[in-house]
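Contributing new complexes? Match this layout with zinc ion.
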Amino acid sequence: MKTLKTEIQTIQESFKKALESVYSLDELESIRVTYLGRKGTIANLMPHLAQLSLEDKRELGPLINELKMVTEKLFNEKKEDLFDKSLEEQEASFKDFDVTAYKPNQPEGSLHLYTQATQDIISIFSSMGYSVEDGPEVETEFYNFEALNIPGDHPARDMQDTFWTTLPNTLLRTHTSPVQIRTMQQQTPPLKVIVPGRVYRHEATDASHDFQFHQFEGMVIDKDISLSHMIATMKHFLETFFKKELKVRARPGYFPFVEPGIEIDMSCPFCKDGCSTCKKTKWIEMVGAGLIHPHVLTSGGIDTKIYTGFAFGFGLTRLIMIKYGISDIRLLHTAHVEFLKQF
Ligand SMILES: [Zn+2]
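Output block (do not edit by hand):
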């Protein structure tokens, strides 16, 4: 009997000691199995108890029960303690977790060349006091042709192959010039506007032609406006856009909506002695322009006795192709990622 009593004490002490050196829930579990398991140290005391006298059983039975209760209590306390500690550790490790540190390899997009060039152009002309105007892409025959001094029998209509819609006198605009008339009708001079936009021509596509392309056009209406104002404006724009000092020259040109009409060339920004961009000529044709035809001013409700104006039109697509050395216009209108990624 004495041996069993000593045994009970020994178990309790060794259990306490074992708990002291436990640092994880796994270790704790293995101690639980050793002491409190169905075949554990405490359960193993029972057969010994059975062999004792009734009197001894009465004394030792409660002692074994107490041992069981005390060990279970100690076990549960330790378990709670370890659980709290592991939570604290987890929290501490998350405290330094930087959610922005993980960056999946995601390709970055960029603005399309049309958008980049349009933004450049708007900023250059804004610095000269121009505002930006917009107009419909589906236009009437009046705004696209008649108001611009191109009546029905005018040969200039053949210069621009037109997409007609199924509605009478309605078409996809062949140039941005209709916006000139709309602006004159809605605003009063002095006017300084640019009009960037998409236009359509019924043409077969190849490396230098597409059925849709972008133009931007500008118009100034004020008192005493002359061609020299326009040439100076074009020179300033081209030099700023190409970031280079350039020469410009004017040649006579024909456009029905201007009189006189001129074409402006710029000196090649890429060479001194001729290259493939300027086709060995050292000059590049850039812009069609002129003083606004009195018929056009009248269509827009402008008093031609008081006001004159100049207008100019660039092929935005062409401007981009020259600046970035793009040889095929169709690349600008396709989702060719490898191509677009370069800009
Ligand atoms: Zn050149």
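Reviewers usually confirm one structural detail per submission. For this one: The two ends are 94 Å apart (CA to CA).
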